[in-house]
Amino acid sequence: MSERKDRAVGKAGATAPATHSQPGEIDRFLGAAKQLAPLATGQAGRLVFALDATMSRQPTWDLACSLQARMFDATSQSGGLAVQLVYFRGIGECRASGWVGEPARLTGLMRRIACEGGQTQIARVLRHVRDEAKTVPVRAFVFVGDAMEEDVDVLAALAGELGLRGIRGFVFQEGHDPAASGAFATIARLTGGAHARFDVNAPASLLDLLRGAAAYAAGGREAMLRLAGSNPAVKGLIAAMDGGRR
After folding, report:
1. Cα–Cα–Cα angle for 60, 171, 153, rounded to 5 degrees
2. Average pLDDT, stretch 214-223?
3. What's the distance, Cα to Cα, between the start and end of the chain in Å?
4. Under 8 Å CB-to-CB from 103, ≥6 apart: which residues?
5. Domain spans in the chain, listed from the N-terminal domain onward
6. What is the mean pLDDT of the chain?
7. pLDDT > 90: what percent of the chain?
8. What is the pLDDT of residue 6?
9. Which pLDDT band, with edges at 50, 70 and 90, does 75 fall under?
């Protein structure tokens, strides 16, 4: 099956509005994505990897960029992993890459993107995950952010849809913003996933969380349980997922 190329993520099904990116930046992003090789196997687990790329996120974007290749390590025994990068920033800009099965290619793609001021667009991310799952099997998504500036009821309704489809959400929060904490916990609970905080100054904290989500995307709960034996953070994710179902 041929893989879909990078494209703008629409707002509630509409065409994405014009953006304020630097001249040529998006052309480079799309050009890089068109050169990505198709996945080696259709059996790889699929994980949507979504990040807030508004201006406050630059340190975390750089951290995620440096760590993402290592999250693939946790999936080698479970059939591998295919990742789709989704990010939002600026004035109405929200984009999704094609499905990438090679960590080095995903790193190269992320390094072409710089953070830019703007408001959160988490609802667009959740709609995208829902729509993407209509065409390919998506087991889980990760969202990394520190803020929420949207209608939490809208986010809850979308998260509920994803939960009914069996798509788990792993929502990783930098900082302690109360609005973000409440919304992120709600998204995690309604999808049967997990909400956890990390410290940008302690890279291992985010890496462990990413590995746990990647393990679930590649091999489900069984893969997470195998990883949890040596990873307390993954044990915490499993406990959060179990608690969310009660």
Report:
1. 120
2. 94
3. 38
4. 68, 69, 70, 72
5. 45-244
6. 85
7. 68
8. 66
9. confident
80 pLDDT band, cuts 50/70/90, is confident
Q: How far apart are CA 58 and CA 8, in angstroms?
A: 21
CA-to-CA distance for 9 and 29, rounded, in angstroms?
Answer: 14
Assess contact for 224 and 209: CB atoms under 8 A: no
Q: Which helix (H) or strand (E) holds 86?
A: strand 81-89
User: Across residues 92-103, what is the average pLDDT?
Assistant: 94
Place of tokens 């040596």: 230
- Which pLDDT tens digit goes with each residue over 122-135? 999 999 999 999 99
Residue 219: CB partners within 8 Å, gap ≥ 6? 45, 75, 77, 78, 79, 226
Looking at residue 186, its pLDDT comes to: 98
- Fold held by 45-244: Rossmann fold (3.40.50)
pTM (whole model) above 0.90: no
d(C-alpha 118, C-alpha 24), whole Å: 20
Taking the C-alpha atoms of residue 219 and residue 30, their distance in angstroms, rounded to an integer, is 30
Secondary structure of 88-122 in the HEC alphabet? Answer: EECCCEEEEEEEECCHHHHHHHHHCCCCCCCCCCH
Other C-beta atoms closer than 10 Å to the C-beta of 161 total 17
Cα four-point dihedral sign 18, 129, 131, 25: positive
pLDDT at 203: 94
* Contact yes or no for 233/212 (Cβ under 8 A): yes
DSSP class of residue 9 equals P
In the block, tokens 């994980």 appear at: 47
Question: DSSP state, 167?
Answer: -
